[in-house]
Amino acid sequence: MAGTQSCEFVFSGKTMAAAADGFEGDDVSVAKKLMMPAMAVAPQVWENDPAAALARLRHEFGEHGGVNMSIEASATFTVVEPETMRRVFTGELGPDRDYFIYSRHFNPTVLNLGRQLAALEGTEAAYCTASGMSAISSVLLQLCSSGGHVVASATLYGGTHALLTHFLPRTCNITTTFVDITDHEAVKNATVQGRTQVLFFESIANPTLTVADIPELSKLAHNKGIKVVVDNTFSPMVLSPAKLGADVVVHSISKFISGGADVIAGAVCGPASLVNSMMDLHQGALMLLGPTMNAKVAFELSERIPHLSLRMKEHSRRAMEYATRMKKLGIRVVYPGLEDHPQHELLKTMANNDYGFGGLLCVDMESEEKANRLMHHLQNSSQFGLIAVSLGYYDTLMSCSGSSTNSELNTDEKALAGISPGLVRMSIGYTGTLEQKWNQFEKAISRMRESGCNVM
User: Buried (b) or exposed (e) across 308-318, using 16+ Cβ within 10 A?
Assistant: First the structure.
């Protein structure tokens, strides 16, 4: 069932005004039900609040008037007339007119989730993928050609680092120079005229929580004709990289956006021209590599995005409170919300209002042995959190990054990235009351001290 407001579609370079009860044009098109694709521009006015941008989207109702949209679980789609098939494959007809070929290409339910992600990040378009790594690899393969070059932050999620360090050079002759992303002169010097095609970094680095100066880095790259790709997995709602100058924003939706630690998913957010090129039948990385999101997964995720803003605010509020209290206890804590964080003031200038400084903090125990003892007591003695990788869950998740999510880096690479052997990354949850969970943290610290372990 169609919604009630007008909008404008942009897809494959074609623009078409659409009314809620249908549109004028091709006779066959009129007979088909209206569906807004991911390329919707409705219209492109940034609200200075991602939640407000999401609220402006047209609501897709279900097949029979349900308040929730229907799930389009079909892998393939019919046409009324045989001639229409040829027109669809040549690109003359497409999702902007509710024509679909095959769900590896476009699926109505997945497109609706893409529309939400585009609104969330303030981009023209978005395409949702089967995982965060598939989103990252597809973007890099689309923007870089054989012999190409990437400049990337030395501090990245281990899987991304391995992709850039080992896989892309071996399979595609695409090389990467890793730099301290806070050293803009080093970033500039690492670029190679005529070869560097992408500057890649995380808005808030995994796991050190280093904050990138997105506006300045974007200016630096654009002056050299380089595309800026930013992984915003750690800070949805908190930061809006596209608003700050980035060309492409990627996500592991599995984390905060999902919030349930029960699905694997990713997203590419950026210009409609890029997303369209990635779905090209002959040259598109997404189309040809096929990291397709299941429509049932897309439906589940689309139902969680409306309360993402509430969740992010609570993640951030508790992380700020715990970091402040940990510091008072003399614990070595890293959190961008603390005034002694090197990029605290920078983050304040970039962050969206009211979303805090993110839901992750780090405790540096210096050695892996002490890190493991801390996590043991936090999980098994006091039930403060769970020893598990990933982040964005409603309960607190803890891992020693050097031996888990960043284990792909060798010793020298970890040192360059600033990853201490005892760095414990905590994704702060919101279960229980704040005071209840803090008491559990203090109990674990007391147990460690009683056993003779210094936590300072």
Answer: bbebbbbbbbb
